[in-house]
Amino acid sequence: MKVTSCSIYFFRVKISRHSIPPYLLRNLEVAKPFWIIDFIFEYLLKENNKAYFYTLLNKKLFMKKTLLLLLLLFPIIGSCQAVVFKNITESKNGFVGIGTKTPDAMLTVKGSIHTQEVLVDLDGAVAPDYVFETYFTGISSLKSDYRFLSLGEIETFIQKNHHLPKIPSAASLKEDGLSLKEMNLLLLEKIEELTLHTIEQQKQIDFLSEQIQLLKNE
Predict the structure, then answer these.
(1) What global pTM score does this model have?
(2) Count of the separate structural domains present in the chain
(3) Rounded to the nearest 10 degrees, how much is the dihedral formed by the CA atoms of 59, 62, 67, 73?
(4) Tens of pLDDT, residues 65-102
(5) Is residue 14 one of the residues assigned to a domain?
(6) Is 51 exposed, middle or buried (0-12, 13-18, 19+ CB in 10 A)?
(7) Residue 73 CB: number of other CB atoms within 10 A?
(8) What span, in angstroms and rounded, lies between the C-alpha atoms of 65 and 58?
(9) What are the backbone dihedrals phi and psi of residue 54, each rounded to the nearest 5 degrees, phi first?
(10) Structural domain of 46
(11) Cα–Cα distance, 15 to 190 (Å, whole number)
């Protein structure tokens, strides 16, 4: 597998349309006298050190221009702020790695990720409403093979395996890692099961309280 190292430069540029060279203006749609464009400049160390320059809409502005020319050009046509990401690799199959030369997914990051929000598509996975459907109707159209276990069955499983049913063991998680989507859905399943067990226990408590009160009244 061929791996290429590169740096990706993110630019936010404020430009006056009157200061843009004519050959650039032809490639851009300028609606206002002053405007903001976000650019990605990707400088790859392959293909004869050729550089590629795109807008975020994947519209090419420059091609086969050197990094030096780009950095010299921006101070002329506007103000520029750049953030540089180094230690990035691109594999032959299109996988991108940050902090690693052996990416095994579309994006592999060796290190911490700081973000404000993560949105995960279910992409074929099923949310655990099947727990309630099965409990109250006897079967679920979402997951027909699901079975609600009694507390006795869960206790027997835990005594034997030392982890909850369907939840990976510590050894498995150490070997294979933890899938956030899968684990969050499993934990939600367990929360719904726990809720139902709590409801059952509360009904038993209420019944026993009534029986105790009847005995006291005799």
Answers:
(1) 0.61
(2) 3
(3) -110
(4) 444 344 444 444 444 444 445 566 667 777 888 888 88
(5) no
(6) buried
(7) 15
(8) 17
(9) -130, 155
(10) 35-77
(11) 55
| Residue 96: predicted pLDDT | 81
CA-angle at 140, arms to 137 and 142, nearest 5° = 150
| Helices marked H in the chain | 22-25, 67-77, 130-137, 151-161, 170-176, 180-217
Residue 138 lies in a domain: yes
Residue 5 lies in a domain: no
Q: For helices 180-217 and 130-137, what crossing angle results, to 10°? A: 40
Could you tell me if 123 and 193 lie in one domain?
A: yes
Same domain, 42 and 60: yes
Beta-bridge mates of residue 79: 14
**Shared domain check, 156 and 67:** no
- Do 200 and 178 fall within a single domain? yes
The secondary structure of residue 128, as a DSSP letter, is T
